[in-house]
Amino acid sequence: NYVQAHPKESWYSFNTIGSTGSTAENPTCESWAGSSNYCYQSCAERCDERGCYWTTCRDSIEAANIILNDVEAKTCIDLSREYVSGQSNGGIFSMRLGAELSHRLAAIAPVSATFTHGFIGTPKYPMPIFDVVGSQDHTVPVNRTNNLSNYALSSDGWRYEPLENVFELWAQANLCPPDTSSTTHFPTPFDNIYGLYCFGYDCNIAPTVRCVWDGAHTYFGNKQPHLHAELIWFLLSSYINPYHIGFGQTITLADNEIPRKQYVPSTIIDNTLLVKQHKEEKNNEVNLRRKDCDSNETLLSFTYGARNASVCAPRIQKCLSPGMSSHPDNGCPYENQVCLSISGAFHCFDTCSPRASSSCSLGASCLLGQLRTSNVGICAYEDYSFTTSGGGGKEYTSYGMKTTS
Across residues 185-205, what is the average pLDDT? Predict the structure, then answer.
């Protein structure tokens, strides 16, 4: 078992460059989002006034190379098949690794990830990328959230790069044809399971592909984690880097020679059983109930995959330390609550652990994928129609969530 090579400091994280690159001229978070609580000891001399630094400032690339070298030295592996995949902060770091270790890696599959706004990294050599994102992910959104801005704003106030901007530059690095105005379907055995659809550019044996599914800030497959593992392996395992000969060293190339990745067809997966399991999970969903919303609450509904859930979330004037679970100064009225900016207003949610259902009120479920911390969820009530006791009942859609105020 291998773990990250630098100390925990505030919490485990990877330095994705953009996560520690905010400046007064180009901040990476909103004025209400940052917090000095995010600042690591390793960043103490450089944290910005807004508090937008939220990961370690140590060299995570060096740590990754140490781990890869250790694995190569102690185990028998195929040096041409070193892949990287991670979720959330790990997914963004996967993209950085793909950009900076394109001589070593064969392919990458970031999950719930895009670069921090203003900090796009691109590979020196073609690098297959399969970015798996949930269409309801508002923790690390990959699409513009406002027509007036050129970035995607998360519910906890951080600015991310729209994936179309990232892929435009990666398509050039991956030697795509000059015209990238149209994309093509990239078929997988998992198509239509939780609405999965992959599309992008098939660029000279270095595909630049986005896979979208009906999910939030979590792994593909919801309660069926094997689906995520099988999808990622299917996407990555067909690509090899024949130039890597170990410990980050590559075959000496001739002048102007470009080390292209090679495609080796993998075993086709029969998705008949996968579709059957998906349907069984959907049919087994349980209806749970909850009281009507109070006048100072907003009905927020979350829909992704086979799960539909709603919650009456109290509104507050200002959100402090957004996205941090159970922070005593986040502005929420009760302990163990987290605040998020949704549909132009600040709301508070009860937090929970999926391993302890009693952490939610009776009848509520622990819903993952809404917070930056992957092992903490919010409490919501599945498959039930709510009414509000106050307000005009106007409905609108934002971040893929239906709200009634």
Answer: 92
